[in-house]
Structures are given as structure tokens and as C-alpha cells.
Amino acid sequence: MKPSIRFSPRFVAVMLLVVFGFATSAFAGPPLICHPFDIGNAKSLPWAGTGWDLSGNENYDTKNLTQDTLAILDAGAPVIVRMETLRRATLYARKDLQAAKELLTRLYQRTTGAHADALAWFDAGYLAAALTQWSGKDQNSAAGIDGYSMVKKAIALRGGPDAEMEFAAALISLYPAQPEHQQHAQKAIAGAKNDPLLAKNLASHFLGSPKQTVAEAIAKN
User: Fold this and answer.
1) What is the pLDDT of residues 65-88, one digit of tens each?
2) How far is the C-alpha of 212 from the C-alpha of 189, rounded, in Å?
3) Is the CB of residue 47 less than 8 Å from the CB of residue 56?
4) Alpha carbon of 200 to those of 102, 118, 121, 184, 187: distances in Å?
5) CA distance 43 to 46
6) Upstream peptide bond of 176 is cis (omega within 30 degrees of 0)
7) What 3-state DSSP class applies to 141?
8) Contact at 8 Å (CB) between 129 and 108?
């Protein structure tokens, strides 16, 4: 008989709060775009503003967007760093549709090789989903691409639990709503117990309460 896994009542309560928090966050704007991800001191695309969006003072040359983004992804960045990098890339690409198409094309090409791995599928799918959430039907460079399915394929290729990818899938499946949203959320929460950065991002995105309080509750239970 396999040993059962027991969570303390406090941990279960936190899990339920976070799951319900996912549902309420839909009113705060596209979840892949309007909430920056905490990546600590990790390297990402340059960002001069302190808000979630472009302040208007950035001097970043979008001609370098594909090259700079690929350099970060190819350096083995963790999933949450990839999420924030692709979020920034989406915001920059809003003012340069050619750059958006170029980056998406390059990421999509990485999924067509015989040895395409989970991260290749994740990157292409996540960018497609971000572009769709931000652009909607208007000037959407990813029109016709099912980013959510690509991210689910990435999770399957991992061959085991990947709580950060589940976090990404939960965000994608929140807007527009998908039946598997809660399952992704619960898997992300379960993995956050051993991933302090993920716990912090779960708290800051979906609970509206102090990051440290929720992160500690997840980590201690």
C-alpha cells in the first residue's frame, strides 16, 4: 500500500484560498501580462519602469528583441524567469509587430526539431498565449496558435511534476477560462511547498495579502 500524503489544516486552507484567488484575479486584466513575476536577481530583458507595463521612458531597441530573448532562454533560465522574460517581450512587441512575429517564429521553429524538449514547447506556447491575452483579436501575431495546448505538451514532456509550468498553465487557463484550470492551480500549490519563489509569486498574484505571510504558510506545511 502506498503511503498517504497528509497536509495540515492550515496548508489546506491556504491552498483553497489560492485556488479561489485565481478565480477573482480575472478581473485585474490579462493574468500573463498585468502582474510582473518576482524573479529575484535573475537576468531578464531590460526594464526601466517600476510598474507592470512600459512607462514610456524605455529606450530599448526592439530590433534586438529576438536575439536578447533567446540569449536568456538558451542560458537555461528557470520557468518563472522565462515567464517574466516573455511577459516583457510581449509588452515590447506591442509597439513592433514585426519583432513579435520574428520572436514567435523563432520559438515555434524550436519545437519542430526531432529533439525539441519541454522548454522549447513551453517558450513557444507561453509567448503565443501572452500575445493572445494582450492583443485579443486585434493585431494578434499568434492568431491560430493554441499556446495552452503547447504548454500542456511541455508539462507532459517533463515526465514528472513541474509546479512552475503548472503555475503558467493555471494562468493561461484562467483567461479565457478552461475546465482544467483548478487542476493546474492545485498542482502548482502543491509544488510551491518546496519552491519559495513559486510560493511568493502565487501569493502576490492571487491572494492580495502580504507575500511573506502566505509564502511562509505554504513553506511550513
Assistant:
1) 999 999 999 999 999 999 999 999
2) 15
3) no
4) 33, 24, 25, 17, 15
5) 8
6) yes
7) coil
8) no
Contacts (Cβ under 8 Å, ≥6 apart) of 148: 125, 129, 169, 172, 173, 178
Judge residue 198's burial from the number of C-beta atoms within 10 Å of its C-beta, 0-12 exposed, 13-18 middle, 19 or more buried: buried
Q: How far apart are alpha carbons 206 and 185 in whole angstroms?
A: 11
pLDDT above 80 (res 164) = yes
Cα–Cα distance between 80 and 109 in angstroms, integer? 22
According to DSSP H, which parts of the chain are helical?
9-24, 65-74, 79-93, 97-109, 118-135, 147-158, 163-174, 181-192, 196-206, 211-220
Average pLDDT over residues 119-145: 86
To which residue does cell 486585434 refer?
Answer: 138
- Banded pLDDT at 108 (limits 50, 70, 90): very high
Cβ atoms 128, 160 nearer than 8 A: no
